[in-house]
Amino acid sequence: MTYKITLIPGDGIGPEVTSAAVRVLEATGLKFEWESFAAGAEAYEKYKEYIPKELNESIERTRIGLKGPVTTPIGGGFSSINVELRKRFELYANVRPIRNLPGVHTRYPGVDLVVVRENTEGLYSGIEHEVVPGVVESLKIITEKASTRISKFAFNYARKMGRKKIHSIHKANIMKMSDGLFIRCSRNISKEYPEIIYGEHIVDNTCMQLVMNPYQYDILLLENLYGDIVSDLCAGLVGGLGLAPGANIGERASIFEAVHGSAPDIAGKNIANPTAVIRSGILMLRHLDEQDAANRVKAAVHHVYREGKHLTRDMGGTTSTSEFADKVVEAIHSKDLVVPAPPVQSPA
User: Per the database record, which ranges form the Isopropylmalate dehydrogenase-like domain (predicted)?
Assistant: First the structure.
């Protein structure tokens, strides 16, 4: 079987890290047909569209995407390509597993939690306008439909993955109607899953609790903006965004992506860390139900980190992007690679 995958290399370091991830995924022996498209400023230069029609059609056709980072202008310019794709294809669930890699020293060894973020509304609806000069109004949209849908997703995910606890994160002490609706939907869904412990924490307290004791959490369920902020904080617990995978799941399509930026200052130097995109590729393999291949890539990445001889500069090494991918590929092909037998749906 050949898997047709929409590939969005991105810009900055995107083409380098996605190229490394593609080589690693192909080393599993699975067959892929990559449909590659530009997005953002590069796409606009070619097609006069930030998200070309051909890219949309490809995602509609393949229903699976692997994406590198795309630069988003700050304070002006075009809208976030990430946000636009999530809204366009109703990629309503953003999933970010947060787990330590062997050999990466952090303050908190053995962290194992998952951030589940509503991906289509909240303040990220992008509904804002200037009321009068110097006064801007931004609307936060929370609906019962979306809040119930993401809550149902989180509890189904917990049941499928053998997780035991979910905390719904909110600011309902201040935003009593919008955040209040979000947690009421979470509470209602929690009643259908009596085997899963349900709790609620205020978002600012959650940030403090995470840096004091992240082990108290299992799955964090958040609306859009809180999820974006808290998931980056959680990535910092295990080594940073260069290691953190991400998945955007919907009924029509799913896109797997590195959650870090495009780092234009080091673009083209072959020094960026491709781990986040590779681990996102592992999530993609699990989504395709290619569990053996996913487990082998995961074991290979862990082997390279555990050995510690071929790490990129951000991890204290001198290995290039392409050389790191070479070592992961070499480990995948090694007869001596130890592939543990984790739960079938074990994350990246």
Answer: 4-328
